[in-house]
Amino acid sequence: MRAKPRRIIFEKKQIMILVVVVCLFSFGHWALSSSQTWPFQERPLNVWMLDVGQGDALFIEFPTGEQMLVDGGPGDVVLAKLGSVLPPWDRTLDAVVATHPDADHVSGIISVLDRYDVETIYESGVGAHTPFGEAYEQRRDAESTHVVQISRGDVINIGEVRLTILWPEETQEGQYPEKRNNVSLVFLLEYGQTSMLFTADTEEEAEDGYAAQVGDIDVLKVGHHGSLTSTSWNLLELTDPEVALISLGKDNSYGHPHPVILDRLDQIGAQIFRTDLDGDILLTSWGGEPTVVAHPLLF
After folding, report:
1. How would you list the strands of the sheet with 58-61, edge to edge?
2. What is the structure's pLDDT at 13?
3. Strands 117-123, 92-98: parallel, antiparallel or unpaired by DSSP?
4. Where are the domains of the chain?
5. What is the torsional sign of CA 195, 87, 105, 224?
6. CATH class assigned to 39-294
7. What is the pLDDT of residues 258-271, one digit of tens each?
8. What's the pTM value of the predicted model, to 2 decimals?
9. Sheet with 219-221, edge to edge strand ranges
10. Other Cβ atoms within 10 Å of 149 Cβ, number
11. Mean pLDDT on 268-280
């Protein structure tokens, strides 16, 4: 029997070495960029504002290990971002929050449902007669995922982290309004001394309905990508945020963030982070005052 040519054996070894190097690189990148802790270590609360362009996508890693995605941004950019903060073998999410079915918030969720096993979807029930709104409903209903409709007064407790739903006033099942921003899900995250308000795309009219329930906060997720329709003086005076996070696309056609909004945030003394300038943004809390830094991911 003839021996196998050495060249073929050598090429196979090269391929195997290349595969191992790629796997080690992927694992190392995940470990470094995700701020991941090992199972025997104490975990912080991590909240990522992911740089997905002109849209919203925030990812929460709870101290008890659960993972929640709040909106998915436009397109499928969120998949690469999740691949950077989750270990390569993880294809599950404990929860997804769909604040409202506009394309720049929900289209990425469709891609996530295709790629990940999602245990629970939280939404207000509001629908949209749009291509992305209908596609989201079809993909959601095709899953075995548990869908929970929530509204003001509902509370989600995950370990010591408390998510209090502030808006809308009631669930929106069967409602298909042309303007969906003001029925977006809004919630307050509290963990020890850390507080963050998630405002989705709510505008001033809706802000006036929930602002008085909030109190002083550490971090504000600025509404509607810094549009002039949101982030009213009333909201800012009642919440007095120390940090403001704005998710938006670079050189977007909407003129976001509006100069008036930036001036308001500057006047109240909030430190501003923007995904168009800072890339991905990471909030970390051990239960005391949070730290917020620009933390661009590789992908």
Report:
1. 146-149, 117-123, 92-98, 67-70, 58-61, 45-49, 281-285, 291-294
2. 58
3. parallel
4. 1-33, 39-294
5. positive
6. alpha beta
7. 999 999 999 999 99
8. 0.88
9. 155-158, 161-167, 186-191, 194-198, 219-221, 243-246, 271-274
10. 16
11. 98
